[in-house]
Amino acid sequence: MTVAAAIRRALPAERLLYLGDVARQPYGTKSPQTVIRYAVKAADFLVGRGIKALVVACNTASAVALEAISARHPGLTVLGVVEAGAAGAARASVSGRIFVAATEGTCRSQAYERAIAKRRDGTRITCIPCPLFVALAEEGLTDGPIVESVARHYLSPLFDGKDGGDCLVLGCTHFPLLAPALARLAGPGVKLVDCAEATASLLVDALSGNRAPEGDSGGLTLVSTDAPDRFARIAARLFPAMGPAPLVELADLY
Amino acid sequence: MTVAAAIRRALPAERLLYLGDVARQPYGTKSPQTVIRYAVKAADFLVGRGIKALVVACNTASAVALEAISARHPGLTVLGVVEAGAAGAARASVSGRIFVAATEGTCRSQAYERAIAKRRDGTRITCIPCPLFVALAEEGLTDGPIVESVARHYLSPLFDGKDGGDCLVLGCTHFPLLAPALARLAGPGVKLVDCAEATASLLVDALSGNRAPEGDSGGLTLVSTDAPDRFARIAARLFPAMGPAPLVELADLY
């Protein structure tokens, strides 16, 4: 949803269809085979609704399932958040010492290491699995002493400054919710790369020539595979314009 | 797995078949409809393997899916952890002021309130959703400053002692892993009810007359719906007798 929110801000004239696979999340702790299976089903659903571009707005799914999805839907613009985040990091870092905070699945895939190396030589990248950040963000616990102690638990090698890190990639779409706390703990010498913002920029480029006419009212449709109440509660925080109880459509992807 | 470990200790001669629905966990944040769907599929799989008793070793699934499972498999002994935990709490509390730490799904179902009230009059029960405990336990973070601050975040109404609570039900099968920390924070005036132990006792009673001959070697078979590596790592902590890399069978329940 952080990615959808960034896309809404960057492309307000486009009509956005957001699918949250709430029935089977989180993806970050699951095997590549299972994540591919779930992500391909989700992509098929969205393609079936008639879309001109697909954003895989989950780092774990981007890291392991992007190829499978692209191969299945040739001709469709398919973007992933990992490529966007890697491009942002390759630009943002001066020292070349880059930390990535991500899920276990994303770190295990080494997708960030590969994507950053493709763009820039001489970087040193450390991907740190931060699974508790997902639970904190989902619960709306985004700052305060608990967030600080969990962040120190994972990221002290960056925070203590001894290692020369000057860039932290928020390599899970939940983590931008923790960005203010992480920025404060990391200090002014560390740039935070928000995959959500980076992906929105990438999408603006990818859609050039195929954009909705400026001034179109755009719109956002929310679809969830389960528990639309909880989903609506989280959406209300991220899309305040939709009111306190946004309408959520239920989709069955079994 | 905490329940399976307690059953192993209580009934070492029995052959135990453990299924972890890793591909779709956690259940605690999902809707009742989805939990029922997943739990019924898991039960069908286990029944298909030829079992004499079924323990629904998840509080959320026990709270919402026990009836559906029992109705589908008449004649089979089906036990849930909620009934066991409620019986334990009804016995353990003197003041009748009982706290239950559980998932969102279990609290929403009010299954503990109903199950305790059935056994004892005049109790006052507060069910507190503690979703971060699940993530902490899964990551093996079971004590220390992070666990303490998260526990205080949820359970200060019990810990501060003003409300007369004398009993805390660990109403999620992940929570026994945090029991030492929670017991210390709650102090000696609060009894902890461990659903895992309570369920094992209930099963001992339920199997009377249908027990494996004493001295049988028993055994434990582990089955997972995904990511057997991660599953095996967690199993190794709970079943040290299986060695550092226990064998895990993969089952496809889609």
Q: Could you characterize what this model shows?
A:
Two copies of one chain form a homodimer. Chain A is α/β, with parallel strands linked by helices and 254 residues long. Chain A has two domains: 2-80 and 199-250, Rossmann fold, CATH 3.40.50; 82-194, Rossmann fold, CATH 3.40.50. The first copy, chain A, is 48% helix and 17% strand. Chain A is built from eleven helices and nine strands. Chain A has helices at 2-10, 32-48, 59-72, 81-92, 104-109, 111-119, 131-138, 145-159, 179-186, 195-206, 228-238, and strands spanning 15-20, 53-56, 77-80, 97-102, 124-129, 167-171, 191-194, 219-224, 249-250. Chain A starts with a helix and ends with a strand. At the A-B interface, helix 2, helix 7 and helix 8 of A face helix 2, helix 7 and helix 8 of B.
The stretches of 5 or more residues of chain A where confidence is low (pLDDT under 50) are: none
- Rg of chain A, Å, rounded: 18 Å
Number of strands of chain A: 9
CATH class assignment of the largest domain in chain A? Alpha Beta
The helix/strand order of chain A is HEHEHEHEHHEHHEHEHEHE
Structural class of chain A: alpha/beta
Please count the helical segments of chain A. Answer: 11
Question: What composes the largest sheet of chain A?
Answer: 4 strands, parallel
**Strands in their spatial order, largest beta sheet of chain A:** 5-4-6-7
Beta-strand content bin of chain A? 15-25%
**Approximate helicity band of chain A:** 40-55%
Oligomer category: homodimer
CATH-defined architecture of the largest domain in chain A: 3-Layer(aba) Sandwich
Instruction: Write the CATH fold name of the largest domain in chain A.
Output: Rossmann fold
The tally of structural domains of chain A comes to 2
Shape of chain A: globular
Largest interface chains and counts:
A-B, 27 and 28 residues
Mean pLDDT of chain A: 95
C-alpha end-to-end distance of chain A? 22 Å
